[in-house]
Amino acid sequence: MWAILPLLCAGAWFLGPATSDAAALSVSSYEKFHFQSWMAQHQKKYSSEEYPQRQQTFVRNWRKINAHNTRNHTYKMALNQFSDMTFDEIKQKYLWSEPQNCSATKGNYLRGTGPYPPFVDWRKKGHFVSPVKNQGACGSCWTFSTTGALESAIAIASGKLLSLSEQQLVDCAKDFNNHGCQGGLPSQAFEYILYNKGIMGEDTYPYKGLDGVCKFQPKKAIAFVKDVVNITLNDEEGMVEAVALYNPVSFAFEVTDHFMSYSKGIYSSTSCHKTPDKVNHAVLAVGYGEENGVPYWIVKNSWGPYWGMNGYFLIERGKNMCGLAACASYPIPLV
Fold first, then answer.
1. Which Pfam families does the UniProt record give (predicted)?
2. pTM summary value
């Protein structure tokens, strides 16, 4: 049965003046100074009209971060590039989308019985994981999850780590129910690469972060997909086996407010959902482990190397946290 899934990462990064029904905060001189320091660090500039609203939003976020970090949580929060945005803005401009079919729920993965290693990190096994990239002003997380998975699969199979074109997927994969900067699914992007007979490299089809006209040149394709493996809906142990035995796995989950300020530790949430109709962001599991009795996934994001743990995060494993087992898949490369 087909499940409904939102377009992943739909929306844009341009945000107008923040709006909030909350009463205006009394902002201290120290908070004002910290906001100006953060603006300089992130090269932010605002109009005179927007400045006080952004300052208010920043201070609310900073106070929330500080309050969170004084409590006994498994992860810490910190200021980052999102700290002048309300979560409503991020949902409306970046994460919100129309629903679409999640093809990964039509599973074709046959799982064994284990046992599996207690710790796996493909980054430490060799030169198998490409550097963290940044999707920038385009709702294209699904393309980065896709290229990351295929880059790793090819490196594991052949020993050669490539950098593949997200922009080709943005521009060319629309016939496979993907929507460029408005969102899509890794499983459908793998299908596109399979039937398209290849994907070009980052160097010959560079990332623009905008919807464009398809410029695929078959003779310049450097990576190919032989088959697509869709892990059965909610089979998180199947994800463990795939990551342990084969290669990193693309998955989707629901981003909620606190995740935007994630800094380090094992992320978990009681406010997110576990159903495939709520997930809104695609990423790449490159490993797993356990810390102080809490199992976790090691996950590569596409928000640049300065977000989270050098562009990565840990998320609790074994509970279908935020729906992460709802739509997992990986490619089998043709090498």
1. Inhibitor_I29, Peptidase_C1
2. 0.93
**Dihedral sign for Cα atoms in the order 125, 253, 289, 81:** positive
Give pLDDT tens digits for 103-158: 445 788 888 888 999 999 999 999 999 999 999 878 889 999 999 999 999 999 99
Distances (CA, A) of 131 to 44, 242, 259, 300: 25, 21, 21, 9
Active-site residue flag, 42 = no
Answer yes or no: do 246 and 270 share one domain.
Answer: yes
Residues 6+ positions from 43 with CB-CB distance below 8 Å = none
Whether residue 173 is found in the same domain as residue 51: no
- 261 contacts 67 by C-beta, under 8 angstroms: no
Q: Is residue 150 part of a domain?
A: yes
The catalytic residue among 61, 178, 281, 322 is 281
Note if 310 is an active site residue: no
CA distances from 198 to 48, 103, 216, 257, 326 (A): 49, 20, 9, 37, 27
Q: Give the total number of structural domains in the chain.
A: 2
Q: What share of the chain is helix, strand, coil (3-state, %, to 5)?
A: 35, 20, 45
Question: Rounded CA gap, 262 and 164, in Å?
Answer: 27
**Which of 90, 119, 145 finishes a domain?**
90
Alpha helices, H only, the chain: 29-42, 51-70, 87-90, 122-125, 141-158, 166-172, 186-196, 236-245
Same domain for 82 and 53, yes or no, is yes
Catalytic residue, chosen from 9, 141, 272, 327, is 141
Q: Which domain holds residue 52?
A: 46-90
Does the annotation mark 172 as catalytic? no
Q: Specify the CATH number for the domain of residue 52.
A: 1.10.287.2250
